[in-house]
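1st attempt posting a full record on here, be nice pls
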Amino acid sequence: TRSRRALTPAGVRGGEGRGSRLSLCPGQRRRRVPHARSPGALGVSAQGFRQLGIMGGGGRRAPLTALTLALLCGLEGGTALRSRLLPRRRSVLQRWSTKTDDEANQGLRERLKVRPDHPRDGKADYAMWCGAFKTQAEEYDYELPAGDVIGEVPADLVGTVFRNVPSRFDRGSTDYGHFLDGDGKIIKLTFRGDGSVRFQNSFVKTREFQEEEAAGEVLYRTAFRTQRKPRPVTLGPLNVEVDAANFMDLWIKNGANTNVLHWGDRLLAFYEAGVPYRMDPTTLETLGADDMGLGADLREGIAVDIAGLPLPGLGSYATAHPKVADVARSRETGRPKDERLISFTWNASPKPVLKFTSDAATEDGRRDEIGRNLMKTELQVYMWEWDEDFRLVQGPLKHSFRNTQIVPHDFSITENYYVFVESRVSGSQVPYILGRCNAGECVAVDSDKNMQLHVVPRDGSEARVRELAPGFTIHSPAAFEEDGKLHLWTTGWRAENVTRGETGGGGLLGAWEGTAPDFERTPQTLLYHTVYDIEQDKVEAHGVSLGLEVVGIDHPHINPEFEGSKFRYMWMQLAGQGTEKSAPGVGILRYDIETGAKEEWYAPQHLFTEEPIVIPRGSGKEDDVYVLHSYYDAVLDRSGAYIFDGRSVEAGPLCNIVYPHAIPHGLHGSYSSQIFE
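the predicted structure (as tokens):
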């Protein structure tokens, strides 16, 4: 039941808190923790956090260790001691930042030992990192007054931030087998311009979620590593082992856990192996599956197309990465703004293979072992565009991927093109059909096959497909056209790791199975820059972005007002540098694509950063933005959000919004200038 009571750090009673993280070390089973009680384990009120200056980064005020907080404020009733030691916040913070000879403050500095920043190589304590990967079942609705925010929320920050977070990782006695199988929950932060923050969250209550909630057990198979408890049997004379509990069940549970966007009058939660779900932007009530006005072209079911027939049980899915772009390019042309939502739906079309041998050569001269499958699958995407009133203005435009078994996770747009990078992934789905494993376990990255660049004209003319080096592309944050060339930025695993076969093993994203992603087994993610010569129809360059050759990153974003147009700056999650090792997010990075210059800010040790959300301030200047950076602090076992001035992230955050509870690590989100209350 949604809690409507006011809930601040001072009002949260002590509970399991820090000790719960010990159950999340490698090899141990997840424990569900009632987070509504956990923050109070330290007994620190909102005023205590504010006065202690939890800001972090580069020698500035940083979060204090749990031990120091306990010593200063006591495990219970620290208010009296705190009031004696810290009577006036502003003057105390000023004295901390200057080496005063004041004896009392000198004593405080000696007692309040701040945490160091994360090391530059991003090396992290895995047990600490695992702390956020536990079920957070509570649904909150509470106010954080301006006085409970460390620093000040900018007065001109008005609107709503939405984020999508996998937030349940177990049902009954079954632990989910993969982080990306978690049930999605929408986080909503409301900024009114008065310094306060309203926090709301609610699960996306898909049909499958509601059925499993009622049954108290896993009922559906997921895309990665979770399914019903096995019942292995052997089929008679064929001597074929199957899992009777999952045999021939190809319906994939809609986790609704990947992205969230408000467009027109709809708030939609996205999952790329399902249809979007519509939420009430005010209450976060789930309103049901949404076909985005496409009718039969986007419906729940198994994403398979058989000769275009509307067969029962078959359907299609929508990408979790829709784009919003001003197709009129009003900043450059002077025309009125014409923003559109641009997205694609997809399904798989089985193609009969007439020759069941292993001698069918692919276009690059290598041989595909297609004899192990009775069908070859062609992935089909359909491009769509909607206006600001959610009226369909363009589509469908069909395009096919013929050399992979997964549809691209993301794409980019320019003035004239949709742009995809096709990662080469193959495998046999027979074990999936037999119920022995999930779909994601049956495929893996082809480490010796070239990726492919797909440049698809938005006017429907013939698409162009050209080869790139082997690799694995994840996100496609931005692209633009200039002087007859198309520039594309993508994130992907380090190519050298992929060509050596270092892709984590155990199927697709196998290193992410279990309690939490294992960065020791995951290839490092880098920012790639691809240049395609439109007139010459050739790839001119493809490689790691200038200045970021040994900088691990993730989730880069541009000012959303520049989507599809020329831009200069990117903001992204920083995951260590100076090494080829992968790491979780440990800071924030601002990157200048023209000069290769970068500004960086490292978070306090054991505080892990997540995807940034870039919020334009309305001036039209590209870097005049706020950047909201969510995080999980493993020392405090709490989550929160920093807000940075996008023009100077190295100066540190403008404010720190500390939630009175933890939130699992999230995926993607968005900003709306509207307030929904």
